[in-house]
Design goal:
With 492 residues, the protein is α/β, with parallel strands linked by helices. The protein has 14 helices and 19 strands. The protein has an eight-stranded mixed beta sheet with strand order 5-4-7-1-9-13-2-14, sandwiched between helices. Strand 16 and strand 17 (430-434) form a beta hairpin. It is globular, with a radius of gyration of 21 Å. The model is unreliable at 1-21 and 488-492 (pLDDT under 50).
């Protein structure tokens, strides 16, 4: 939350660095917005063993947000909140169909459909490549249907591009294997991982980056500033990546989860049986709440997740290098955003779709050309809805309507960002509040307990619900949680 102290700090910094701030720009910056599917805080910059040198370098050069939380732990709903700047306010906002139902097919009006639309309104050339909204290629159609001509975001993009390659459609590519088959074509008789003997463009994300590199050359010649959205599929299931990225890791050195058990004092209704993961019918073992998968299989799956991250990191490295070669980096803001987290066997779950830290916390890196934003780490609690006002303010674009997020610029110029902020998450008929020291979750259901409290004042994982032990903390935080309960009509 923006408080008085942060506001004063922001004004002071503006006064001291007037010549280099966004509000004094003669030319608006370009934006390269990179969405990475299912990317939790699993980068070297966050302390992981992941080999991610390109994203790590951007984190060092720019700003690494260590406590960024999405609004909803599922792809489409998370992206709806990000793009509109609104937290969920009705049931469809918790669904992967949120964007298709709420934005697609609607007429243009004074309130932009997304922050991308707002950039377009003020003269930006906007290009979407890959998965930025929920659909793999930005068009509305089912997994096994032909590609339609109906855009998920009808007013946001000047150009909407995708190269489906041998997979032929966006959704086939999203679930694609190296031989050109996909999860649908093989009736889910597939493994949840693959180390393909292919080059980078042997999987769809390699084609996506090739398209983006080609488009950057064109955009260099335009007089307009640009907003380019590049959406990568991995590390979303299946964990498919060229074998050379698997070879970066010694599987024996890959750790299993430090929190593999069911948390104490919770109902199993707060978790799930890893249904999305178990759709891959040829997996070595089935996951479930009854028992953890073997350590050997957990290491194999984590190996695939890490290899997928390294694959995407290499594609981001190509974009970063091309920006520098074209001398576009001097006036381009780069954002790397993970659409939610992922349980890698944590709390006995493989997947997202919970209100636990593992599913709601994701990667956020912002690299700007401005000196006051270099070499920083922000430890405050921030939310995905904050990116809408942040990107507009960074680009000196007026925000003409109210959104739920708050600009991150005060945090980006402050030297003290600890012990600040709150974040709200919504799913499973519940609402979760994250503060610097605690996570409080309240469910609207019959199964008890309906209140969960987790201590984050130290390094403890969410392995024990302490709500019954610390009623005074619950009582103190409930009013803050209830500030987000304008969504109560969403109860089903």
């Amino acid at each position: 939350m923006l408080n008085y102290f942060r506001f004063i700090v922001f004004l002071v910094v503006l006064g001291c660095k007037e010549e280099s701030t966004p509000s004094k720009m003669k030319v608006r910056p370009n934006i390269l917005f990179i969405a990475v599917d299912d990317l939790r805080n699993e980068l070297g910059a966050y302390g992981s063993i992941a080999k991610s040198p390109n994203m790590d370098a951007l984190a060092v050069e720019g700003i690494l947000f260590t406590h960024h939380y999405v609004q909803v732990p599922t792809c489409g709903a998370s992206r709806h909140a990000l793009l509109t700047g609104y937290r969920p306010s009705k049931p469809i906002h918790l669904s992967n169909n949120a964007i298709a139902e709420e934005l697609s097919g609607k007429s243009e009006n004074s309130i932009p459909e997304t922050f991308i639309h707002r950039f377009k309104q003020v003269g930006y050339h906007t290009v979407g490549i890959g998965k930025i909204s929920h659909s793999a290629d930005g068009y509305v159609y089912g997994y096994e249907e032909p590609v339609s001509e109906k855009r998920e975001l009808p007013h946001s993009w000047s150009e909407l591009l995708f190269d489906a390659g041998k997979w032929e459609t966006g959704w086939n590519a999203f679930f694609g294997y190296a031989n050109g088959e996909n999860r649908q074509s093989l009736n889910k008789q597939v493994k949840p991982y693959e180390a393909g003997e292919v080059e980078d463009d042997g999987y769809p994300d390699g084609l996506t980056v090739n398209l983006a590199l080609s488009k950057l050359k064109e955009l260099k010649k335009k007089e307009k500033p640009f907003f380019m959205g590049v959406g990568f599929f991995k590390p979303h299931l299946p964990f498919n990546a060229p074998k050379k990225y698997w070879d970066l890791y010694d599987r024996e050195e890959i750790p299993v989860s430090d929190n593999p058990g069911i948390p104490e004092n919770v109902n199993l209704a707060s978790l799930h049986e890893s249904g999305e993961f178990n759709q891959y019918a040829l997996g070595d073992e089935k996951a479930g709440l009854g028992a953890s998968v073997s350590d050997a299989y957990a290491k194999k799956l984590r190996h695939g997740y890490l290899a997928s991250i390294s694959y995407i990191d290499a594609q981001i490295g190509k974009l970063r290098q091309e920006l520098k070669r074209l001398e576009l980096d001097e006036n381009t803001i780069i954002v790397i955003w993970g659409d939610h987290g992922w349980h890698l066997g944590d709390q006995r779950v493989w997947g997202k779709h919970t209100l636990f830290e593992n599913a709601l916390k994701s990667t956020l890196i912002i690299k700007t050309p401005y000196a006051e934003h270099h070499h920083k780490k922000v430890d405050a609690i921030v939310e995905s809805v904050d990116l809408y006002p942040t990107l507009l303010e960074l680009s000196d674009i007026p925000l003409n309507h109210k959104v739920d997020g708050e600009s991150l610029l005060p945090l980006m110029v402050s030297d003290d960002s600890k012990d600040q902020g709150t974040a709200y998450g919504y799913f499973k008929n519940g609402i979760s509040l994250r503060t610097p020291d605690y996570r409080l979750t309240k469910y609207f259901r019959d199964e008890e307990p309906v209140i969960e409290l987790y201590d984050h004042s130290g390094d403890s994982p969410e392995d024990k619900n302490i709500a019954a032990e610390r009623p005074e903390i619950v009582q103190r935080l409930i009013p803050v949680l209830e500030e987000g309960e304008w969504w109560v009509p969403m109860r089903q």
